[in-house]
Amino acid sequence: MTSSPLHFRSRRNALLVGYLGILVGAAALYDAYEGRGRMKPFLVKFLPGA
Q1: What pLDDT does 26 receive?
Q2: So where does this one cross the membrane (predicted)?
Q3: 49 phi-psi bin (left φ>0, alpha ψ -120 to 50, beta other)
């Protein structure tokens, strides 16, 4: 089997992009639900940062 090509050259860059994605996603979920006074769906309660 051949391995798939890596998307990032360094591990550090991959971690930074991953953590940034989690932060942006958490901010978007907060704005979508709590920032607008709506109840969170049941499955959103299990997401990190939500």
Answers
A1: 79
A2: 14-33
A3: left
C-alpha 22, offset from chain centre: 3
Contact residues for 7 (Cβ-Cβ < 8 A; gap 6+): 14
Alpha-carbon span 46 to 33, nearest angstrom? 14
CA angle 9, 29, 7 (to 5 degrees): 10
Task: Give the pLDDT confidence score for residue 2 in this predicted structure.
Answer: 61
Size (the chain), residues: 50
Residue 29, classed as helix, strand or coil, is helix
For every one of its 50 residues, what pLDDT tens digit does the chain have, with 9 covering 90 and above? 567 778 888 999 999 999 999 888 878 877 877 767 677 677 766 766 55
Local structure of 4: helix, strand or coil: coil
